[in-house]
């Protein structure tokens, strides 16, 4: 049986956990915007530095997740591997380009706040994925 025939044939397949990506990245965007709104009356530069740093984290991670979860199952092993590598390289390039564009185009900028927001959203991403992973293992 060829790989193409295997893809078309119905069979029981072990499902790989797919986290609710829209919820995760929507929640991250909402928290970044909330932090920015709280900071806005205190310091406008810190407020938009927070948004930029948070979005530099969210956008590449969302792209990566979209690429990784496009395919599932042993019949799609080649496509899964390709999409993983494509997602990881795209995430890296996008992150570098967003940081470079930010430093080149945005003045004034609070670099510490930018990196703090970036790291906070990265950690939040890991925590949310772990939480949804544990919740799916209980089911």
From TrEMBL:
**Residue stretches spanning the membrane:** 21-40, 46-64, 92-109, 115-134
Protein's membrane topology: Multi-pass membrane protein
The record's section on Pfam families has: ATP-synt_I
Naturally occurring in which organism (per UniProt): Zhongshania marina
Would you tell me the protein name for this molecule?
F0F1 ATP synthase subunit I
Assigned keywords, A-Z: Cell membrane, Membrane, Transmembrane, Transmembrane helix
**Domain of life, per lineage:** Bacteria
Localization (cell)? Cell membrane
């Amino acid at each position: 049986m060829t790989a193409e025939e295997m893809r078309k044939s119905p069979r029981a397949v072990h499902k790989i956990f797919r986290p609710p990506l829209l919820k995760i990245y929507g929640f991250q965007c909402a928290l970044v915007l909330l932090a920015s709104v709280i900071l806005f009356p205190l310091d406008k530069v810190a407020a938009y530095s927070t948004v930029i740093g948070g979005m530099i984290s969210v956008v590449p991670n969302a792209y990566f997740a979209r690429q990784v979860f496009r395919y599932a199952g042993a019949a799609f092993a080649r496509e899964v591997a390709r999409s993983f590598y494509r997602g990881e390289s795209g995430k890296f390039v996008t992150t570098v380009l967003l940081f470079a564009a930010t430093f080149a185009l945005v003045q004034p900028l609070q670099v510490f706040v930018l990196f703090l927001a970036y790291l906070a959203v990265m950690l939040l991403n890991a925590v949310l994925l772990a939480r949804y992973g544990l919740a799916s293992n209980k089911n």
